[in-house]
Design brief:
heterotetramer; A mainly alpha; B mainly alpha; C mainly alpha; D alpha+beta; A: mainly alpha; Cytochrome Bc1 Complex, Chain D, domain 2; 19 helices; B: Cytochrome C Oxidase, Chain A; Four Helix Bundle (Hemerythrin (Met), subunit A); 2 domains; two-stranded antiparallel ribbon; metal-binding (chain B); cytochrome-c oxidase (chain B)
């Protein structure tokens, strides 16, 4: 009885405190020191309690590059990056986003992962838009691990690759005809004419069908296909821009295979890709993804093995998406074993594209 | 001829007047904890009430699921339930009805009725009984609630692999079934041990087996059948869970397993299960009919024979469920023959009841109506049972609604109707008011008519082609009318149950004293005036219907003129009698209320359920806490002898017993029978796979070296020697307890090492459980042995600690003796395992 | 009623126990014979097992009228009836063994 | 079309139907006898009740009577099983392999010369010719049941069961999977079409009708969209073994294993959204295609007879 009374009193007191308006919520005022310490203490312990204990190999160049490219477009505005300070606007947030180069060493890999994935309440840190794409989140963590040691030049190399970012003249800057940071540039990850992607974790778009490229971008934009990296970028594109991009990449000649898959057997992959595995209810991949398949489907020849594996795994493991292509592929991917994914990825990575108009005879 | 006055003074064991505070002290000792502390109670009257309430709750829940199914099937192509929901619901309906309602309900009736009926104060292991109940309740509720989270199993209550293997049933639904049900089976076994020892060892003096009420006979056979039937399904669930969790391919044909192995194990349990449910219900009928007809049961001896014969024959029927699997004709013939044989005992019972009704004059009460309804429905179900035992007929009827109709006639007719009869019949003994005859009759009419409208048309639906377990059906095959009728009937049954619930709310006033009393003028001891301590004194029994034979018995018992009218040791106690003749042997002190068993139940449930959702660390912690709770509860169960005590009539009984006289020794023997049955099921599985998968047998698989089994056998021999020596040293004229402890530790270590050597030898030979069904079974031997060794080690440490603190010695040795029994068993099982996994493959067959 | 001891209980249940043993032998021997030996050997095993089982039940039934259970009507009549039921059950299983060929599917 | 045990049209089904009727008759007599006895025991006169109330009555009615009837029944049912077994002594005149998969039927007609003709979800049988059905399953346990022709037999992974069927006259019957096999177990039926033997032979050996000019477009879309990676169509670029053979799908009475009547509309519905018609089946929903493309595929499939 006494206990109930005590709890009741506590609740009443808290209610009165809030109702009186005594507490100042102004961001301009900051927290009392003790409140700040208490919130920080609570936040750190909450993260520690929930973070996963294991992580993939984070010294992976492909992973770091992908993370860097995303960081540049997605994170630097608030957190700053080597060579550029965060926006003065975000510096007046409460709490203000920290400079990550100083802070990342305080956290374990798993804790960083958790923070990137789930964000922080009341701190302006958003959650990852695609909660079923852990593979992407790890790339950001991999990059963050490199961040403390990066200077501006190395950062640009990693994040912008070889994409020339020329601000142009004053007119271009004044009329916003150029984007000085090249934030939205597809080529930073996917490459362009004659130059493949910087990381084996993204697809080679060169020479894919226009239909498929445009559909993929629309699916990302609508959230029907899940990716924390692609969704925000695609959502910012106008329909005409999507058409133009699709036309551009569809017209580029496909690249020659240059992947050297470390896992998986090309021979086994070939068997699976050409004949399927009827006992495991797996159809032959090339019926749809071969050179004479419907333009609604992607051509897989020459794609990096790691990208293919990651996509198949995402389809298999995640709730995935809601797009019609997802509806077709997800149930098939769900029947593949890890080994089969590795094999079939290795096979396609080793294949040369045939029959594309953009290819020289 | 003696006069009444002489009899008052001379013949009865205890003279009047009784000492003034005797009754008060007795009541204080047996007092039920008040308020919310009632959760710590262990009195059979309290636990029995809870138990029946919980079982009835699951009956209602599973009944609601049945109604959902009937709504879905009311019309063809219905969209009320989707396919996955329907599949989960029919799986849960069957599972809950069989495992969470039927078996617990009859076990509950046993817990509630047996001590009073047998003239005992309580069951012999009150905390074990309470543990079994709480484990069942917690586990059952969590299991049922999986339905609300879309995590319920959907593989059917029979869970046939490969459908329930990880390939075709990913997700945790099947794991919930396997771990949850496996756990509830363990609870049922704990209850069965309690019931066997209770029936055999705590009967009132003079109540020899031939004077025992039929209900007690049925509960005895029920419990013995559980001991032999449940281990088969426990092994099966264990193997399927090992397959799902660790990829041991017992049931995967491509990898040397066999899909039918599951069916053999499951139905070796599943068919006796039907009789496990039916026999106690028939026992209730055998109690109700004589009372309502006011005449002793006609054919008592024939009924006992029928019960025993059913207990045996029902184990020869399991392939009866596998007539369409394509096994050889002659096997089908054997099982068909056994199916015929089992119908004879049921016939004997039916005609005995009819003869009894004819011998007296049946009063038409609500209880009698439910009994008559039972006779009608059960007879019809029995006749369709003979039909499906005819192999060619079964080829058509199997897995159709004909079978659904058949077993609902047998189970609802054979178990639910008697249970309702029992509710109306026994309510006055446990409630301040009887239930309403008027509402009871209304409930009966609704349930009886509703039942036949619901289930008779299913015979027809099955014969015109409707298979079982379909969530929808097309129009135009003639199935519409019977299905609609079934749905209407199902709701009539539900209405009947609602009327019954209304009756409960209006009239049931649970009590352990001051009950409505012997309103039916029945003849058996549960109708004596009862209180928290059961009857005031324990009568001497000279006939099957003692209250009819001796009109003064009730009053004399209540005055305390029979045995043990108070408490002689200041603790809860009951008289332990010999198994056959019920001669008083000693007075056992029983445990009272406590929390350890309740916590043990909760944490055991948590262990299994957390394991299901793969929270292994949390599960292990809960498992350790559960073991700690069991140890805590066991710590004060082995009270030292309080010397000989006087129970009246010049009988002085000891208060401590060791060896075969000890009731605890009996419990241990039964537990060993359970373990033995589990191991025999394993041996069957091993040999079965040998017959059906000759292509996977060694020498194809790597065979362990000779060194392995020789080392293991040598270690077992050392352990056996230590066992013998430690037993001798504790009873030596000059006991050296340190020596006993040392020998025990050495013995346990060598037992453990023996197991390790065996498993290691297979492992070093390159065999892995994932290789094949054969390999998985080889390692299963080690797995089963590890369970026994773990139990022996825990008991051994427990015994050693007690020896060291002076609580256990050569005279006060029950704890040590029990450990020795299981240790001996473990040695035997280990040796058999060596013969099987090392010797058998070398026979070159 | 009088106490009969463990052996007495065993004898009392002899009929059903013999039935169970016979059942295991004929069923298991068919499984083994059909996969590891040959069909003819099973017919022989089943036939011999049935004859032995029936003879033992009959022998025990006759003995129980005069032996251990002589003084106790309950044990005597119940043992006799159980023997009768077991005899019938073994006979029925025997009929199946005689009428049906071993190791043959029925499809 | 029927799926009834009580309207047999095959030797085994007829024997079982006779047995069933006999059992029903006998059971009815016994049931009413027992109920009459029970009624007499409750409401009968004193002399009647006295006659009933004895152990002798229990022995007579509860032991002697059942033993006699059950012995007779056992002989009868064993004799029926013998009849079945002896019928199997002669080699069958034809062989059809039936593999049950979640949740459809893969049917292969094996010609005497060893040629194998793949079909699905519709079993055609020759009248008057004894055929052996070879029953297997690659995934979970199923059970083949055609009530009008005979009893059911399970299809168990890792095992092969054989069932002889002989059918008396032409007609159309329905069969269904009788063992719960998960998911849409309820939607796993098939039609059995009994044809005169000559008609049957002509059908088995007959050619697959090629597509007409109207259906060329449909065939093109069918092939480039990857349909052939799961489905086989003889003569087309489609040889998949994952799903049902579609070589003569237009000639079948139903699609999706007895779930829908065969029609262009239903084929379209199934291609676009088969998961809501038969949840859990392996075919992904092809919502990707334009409506006219799917319609063209359906038209092509309808032309395959």
């Amino acid at each position: 009885m006494a206990f109930v009374l005590l709890v009741g009193l506590g609740v009443a007191a808290a209610f009165l405190f809030a109702a009186s308006g005594v507490y100042n919520v102004a961001a301009s005022r900051g927290h009392w020191w003790i409140v700040d310490q208490f919130l920080r203490f609570g936040m750190e312990n909450s993260v520690k309690a929930r973070a996963p204990e294991t992580s993939p190999n984070l010294d992976d160049a492909d992973l770091i590059r992908l993370g860097a490219a995303h960081f540049h477009g997605g994170c630097a505005f608030c957190h700053g990056a080597p060579g550029s300070r965060p926006s003065p606007v975000v510096q007046h947030m409460l709490p203000s986003p920290p400079d990550l180069a100083e802070r990342v060493d305080r956290w374990t890999d798993g804790e960083l992962f958790w923070l990137v994935k789930h964000g922080l309440k009341y701190a302006g840190m958003p959650a990852w838009p695609a909660q079923d794409r852990d593979d992407e989140i790890w790339s950001v963590v991999a990059f963050l691990r490199q961040l403390p040691d990066l200077d501006a030049r190395h950062y640009e190399e990693l994040a912008l690759a070889e994409v020339q970012v020329d601000g142009g003249g004053g007119r271009e800057l004044a009329t916003a005809e150029s984007d000085p940071d090249g934030v939205g540039a597809c080529a930073r990850c996917h490459g362009d004419a004659g130059r493949g992607p910087q990381t084996k974790l993204v697809p080679r778009l060169q020479g894919q069908s226009r239909d498929w490229l445009a559909r993929s971008l629309r699916d990302y934009a609508e959230g029907a296909r899940h990716s924390g990296i692609m969704q925000p970028l695609a959502a910012a594109l106008k329909p005409e821009a999507i058409e133009k991009l699709a036309t551009y990449y569809a017209g580029l000649p496909p690249l020659a295979p240059d992947d050297d898959p470390r896992r998986g057997s090309v021979e086994e992959g070939q068997k699976l890709a050409t004949s399927g595995d009827p006992g495991a209810e797996i159809p032959a991949c090339i019926s749809c993804h071969g050179s004479d398949g419907s333009p609604d489907y992607p051509r897989l020849a020459g794609q990096p093995a790691r990208y293919l594996s990651a996509q198949l795994a995402a389809w298999r493991n995640g709730k995935g998406g809601t797009s019609p292509t997802h509806a077709i592929m997800a149930p098939i991917a769900a029947r593949l074993t890890d080994q089969q994914i590795a094999d079939v990825s290795a096979f396609f990575a080793s294949q040369r594209v045939v029959g594309h108009p953009g290819l020289a005879p | 001829m003696t006069s009444t006055a002489e009899r008052e003074t001379a013949e009865l064991p205890n003279p009047l007047p009784r000492p003034r505070d005797e009754l008060r002290r007795l009541q204080a000792v047996w007092a039920i904890p008040e308020g919310w502390r009632i959760l710590s109670a262990v009195n059979n009257s309290v636990i029995g009430y809870f138990y029946i309430g919980a079982a009835f709750l699951f009956f209602v829940l599973a009944g609601v699921l049945a109604l959902l199914m009937r709504v879905q099937l009311a019309v063809p192509g219905n969209l009320f339930l989707d396919q996955e929901s329907y599949n989960q619901i029919f799986t849960m309906h069957g599972t809950v009805m069989m495992f969470l309602f039927a078996v617990p309900a009859v076990e509950a009736m046993g817990v509630l009725l047996l001590p009073q009926m047998l003239g005992a104060r309580d069951l012999p292991f009150p905390r074990l009984g309470a543990f079994a109940f709480w484990a069942y309740l917690v586990g059952g509720l969590v299991f049922f609630s999986t339905l609300f989270f879309d995590m319920a199993p959907s593989g059917g209550w029979f869970m046939y692999p490969p459908l329930t293997g990880s390939r075709f049933s990913p997700g945790t639904g099947a794991d919930f079934w396997l771990l949850g049900i496996g756990f509830i089976e363990i609870s049922a076994i704990a209850g069965a041990i309690e019931i066997i020892v209770g029936v055999l060892r705590t009967r009132a003096p003079g109540m020899s087996l031939d004077k025992m009420p039929i209900f007690a006979w049925t509960m005895l056979i029920f419990a013995v059948m559980i001991v032999f039937a449940f281990p088969a399904v426990i092994l099966a669930t264990m193997m399927l869970e090992l397959e799902r969790a660790f990829d041991w391919p017992f049931f995967i044909p491509d990898r040397g397993g066999d899909a039918l192995l599951w069916q053999h194990l499951f139905w070796f349990f599943g068919h006796p299960e039907v009789y496990i449910i039916f026999l106690p219900a028939a026992g209730m009928v055998s109690m109700i009919v004589p009372t309502m007809a006011a005449t002793p049961l006609v054919g008592y001896r024939l009924i006992v024979v029928a019960l025993i014969a059913t207990g045996f024959f029902s184990f020869g029927l399991w392939v009866h469920h596998m007539f369409t699997t394509g096994i050889p004709a002659m096997s089908l013939g054997f099982f068909s023959a056994a199916s015929m044989a089992v119908s004879v005992p049921s016939g004997i019972q039916v005609f005995s009841w009819i003869a009894t009704m004819a011998a007296g004059r049946l009063r038409i009460t609500a209880a009698s109506l439910f009994v008559l309804g039972f006779l009608f429905i059960f007879t019809l179900g029995g006749l369709t049972g003979v039909m499906v035992a005819m192999v060619p007929f079964d080829w058509q009827a199997h897995d159709t609604y004909f079978v659904v109709a058949h077993f609902h006639y047998v189970l609802v007719g054979g178990m639910v109707f008697p249970l309702f009869a029992a509710f109306y019949y026994w309510a006055p003994a446990f409630s301040r008011r009887a239930l309403s005859e008027r509402l009871g009759k209304i409930a009966f009419v609704l349930m009886f008519v509703g039942f036949n409208i619901a289930f008779f048309p299913m015979h027809i639906a099955g014969l015109i082609g409707m298979p079982r377990r379909v969530y929808t059906y097309p129009a135009g095959l003639g199935w519409e009318t019977p299905n609609l009728a079934s749905t209407i009937g199902a709701f009539m049954i539900a209405a009947g149950v609602l009327v019954f619930l209304l009756d409960l709310i209006r009239h049931l006033r649970p009590t352990v004293g001051a009950s409505a009393g012997n309103v039916w003028n029945a003849g058996t001891l549960e109708w004596l005036e009862n209180d928290v301590h059961a009857a005031r004194s324990v009568p001497f029994v000279e006939s099957r219907d003692p209250l009819w034979e001796d009109a003064r018995l009730s009053a004399d018992v209540h005055k305390g003129r029979y045995y043990l009218p108070g408490t002689v040791t200041g603790r809860r106690e009951t008289i332990v009698t010999s198994a056959i003749l019920a001669e008083p042997q000693y007075v056992v002190r029983l445990t009272g209320p406590g929390w350890a068993h309740l916590l043990a139940a909760i944490f055991t449930a948590a262990f299994f359920l957390l394991l299901t959702v793969k929270l292994v660390t949390a599960a292990i912690i809960c498992g350790a806490v559960a073991i700690a709770c069991v140890v805590a509860w066991a710590w004060d169960t082995d009270s030292p002898s309080a010397g000989d005590v006087d129970i009246g009539g010049g009988i002085r009984l000891p208060t401590y017993a060791v060896g075969a006289a000890s009731h605890s020794w009996w419990a241990m023997i039964i537990l060993m029978a359970v373990a033995g049955a589990l191991y025999l099921s394993y041996v069957f599985s091993y040999l079965y796979l040998w017959t059906v998968r000759p292509q996977d047998w060694p020498p194809i698989a790597p065979l362990a070296s000779h060194a392995g089994w020789i080392a293991s056998a040598a270690l077992l021999c050392i352990s056996a020697a230590a066992l013998w020596a430690s037993g001798r040293s504790i009873r030596a004229a000059v006991p050296r307890l340190w020596l006993t402890v040392g020998l025990t530790v050495v013995g346990l270590l060598t037992l453990l090492l023996g197991l390790g050597a065996d498993v290691a030898s297979h492992w070093l030979a390159g065999l892995r459980p994932q290789h094949s069904g054969y390999a998985a079974l080889v390692f299963t031997a080690g797995f089963l042995q590890a369970e026994i060794v773990a139990a022996v080690c825990i008991m051994g440490i427990f015994a050693c600690v007690r020896i060291l603190v002076g609580l256990t010695d050569g005279r006060r040795s029950v704890v040590f003796d029990n450990m020795v029994l299981l240790w001996g068993y473990g040695l035997g099982q280990g040796a058999l395992g060596l013969l099987l996994t090392h010797g058998f493959p070398r026979l070159g067959m | 009623m009088r106490s009969v001891g463990t052996l007495g209980i065993g004898l009392w249940l002899a009929g059903p126990i013999i039935w169970a043993t016979h059942f295991i032998i004929v069923y298991a021997s068919e499984s083994v014979a059909c996969t590891r030996l040959d069909a003819d050997s099973h017919s022989l095993i089943a036939g011999i097992a049935t004859i032995i089982a029936l003879a033992s039940i009959a022998f025990i039934a006759v003995r129980s009228r005069a032996g251990r259970f002589r003084d106790t009507a309950f044990l005597r009549t119940t043992a006799l009836t159980m023997n009768l039921l077991a005899f019938l059950a073994v006979t029925w299983a025997g009929i199946a063994a005689v009428l049906l060929p071993s190791c043959t599917g029925v499809g | 079309m029927n799926q009834s045990v009580l309207e047999p049209n095959g030797a085994e089904a007829e024997r079982i139907a006779d047995l069933a009727l006999m059992l029903f008759g006998g059971a009815a007599i016994i049931f009413f006898g027992v109920m009459a006895l029970a009624a007499a025991s409750v409401w009968g006169g004193v002399s009647v009740r006295r006659a009933i109330a004895s152990e002798r009555m229990i022995v007579a009615a509860g032991i002697a009577f059942p033993v006699i009837t059950l012995t007779a029944l056992l002989f009868y049912s064993l004799w029926l099983m013998r009849a079945n077994i002896q019928g199997n002594a002669t080699p069958p005149a034809g062989r059809i392999e039936v593999a049950a998969e979640q949740w459809w039927w893969r049917i292969t007609y094996v010609e005497p010369d060893g040629r194998r003709i793949s079909e699905a979800n519709e079993l055609r049988l020759p009248v008057g010719r004894e055929v052996e059905l070879v029953l297997t399953s690659p995934d979970v346990i199923h059970s083949l049941w055609i009530p009008a022709i005979g009893g059911k037999l399970d299809m168990i992974p890792g095992r092969t069961n054989r069932m002889r069927v002989s059918i008396d006259g032409p007609g159309i019957y329905r069969g269904q999977c009788a063992e719960y096999c998960g998911g849409p177990h309820a939607l796993m039926a098939f039609d059995v079409i009994a044809l005169e033997a000559t008609e049957f032979d002509a059908w088995v050996r007959g050619d697959v009708a090629g597509g007409s000019t109207e259906t060329v477009r449909g065939r093109g879309i069918f092939e480039e969209s990857g349909c052939g990676s799961c489905h086989a169509v003889r003569g087309a670029n489609a040889s998949g073994l994952v799903g049902p053979d579609l070589s003569r799908v237009g000639g079948r009475r139903t699609i999706a294993a007895g779930t829908l009547p065969t029609s262009r509309e239903n084929l379209t519905r199934f291609i676009v959204d088969g998961q809501s018609i038969k949840p859990g089946n392996l075919m992904p929903p092809f919502g990707l295609f334009a409506a006219e493309d799917v319609d063209a595929i359906s038209a092509y499939l309808m032309s395959l007879q």
